[in-house]
């Protein structure tokens, strides 16, 4: 069984994914795969060729903060970055799902934006109000303006909700989120 888990930035996808993991699902986090793809030699070479050495840290890895500011303020640069790393992320995701006897949660923030629903048993959207999302992103060190830019760069959460088979609202406590995931798993495995 392969389930697509999506939602907007700051909605709690990773926390929900952890609760799915406690039910035996193997979680494949596209953000982790993106970090891996971003730091592979061919990618680093392309980034440096386009943006210069400012996008590379002293340890030779991609400067994600610098790159984030660049791509979230310029859609052309965002498209460039996605054209490099998304094919590699897809390949890494397929490698990670090699064991067909297991059930997987594919945590993919841009699930609908990139049409990655083929082969999924269901889609689950973790959603939150914009105010809660802004607060969560600010607690991660982003300014309110940076947080709003990132929210605005994604498909509106209302659209993701409409496209999803299951919706888990996450404006409450961790216990509430866990209970919602538990209900979703019962339905999926039922």
Commentary on this structure:
This protein is α/β, with parallel strands linked by helices. It has two domains: 1-25 and 106-190, P-loop containing nucleotide triphosphate hydrolases (Rossmann fold), CATH 3.40.50.300; 34-102, no CATH class. Helices cover 53% and strands 13% of the residues. It has nine helices and five strands; from the N terminus they run βαβααααββαααβα. It has helices spanning 13-21, 30-38, 41-51, 64-71, 75-96, 130-139, 144-152, 157-163, 174-189; strands spanning 2-7, 26-29, 104-107, 122-127, 166-169. The protein has a five-stranded parallel sheet with strand order 2-3-1-4-5, with helices on both faces.
Structure in a nutshell:
The protein has nine helices and five strands; from the N terminus they run E-H-E-H-H-H-H-E-E-H-H-H-E-H.
Major β-sheet profile: 5 strands, parallel
Biggest sheet: strand arrangement: 2-3-1-4-5
Give the CATH architecture of the largest domain.
Answer: 3-Layer(aba) Sandwich
Structure class: alpha/beta
Low-confidence stretches: none
Question: What is the 3D form?
Answer: globular
Outline the secondary-structure elements.
Blueprint: E1 2-7, H1 13-21, E2 26-29, H2 30-38, H3 41-51, H4 64-71, H5 75-96, E3 104-107, E4 122-127, H6 130-139, H7 144-152, H8 157-163, E5 166-169, H9 174-189
List key phrases describing it:
190 residues, Rossmann fold, alpha/beta, 9 helices, 2 domains, globular
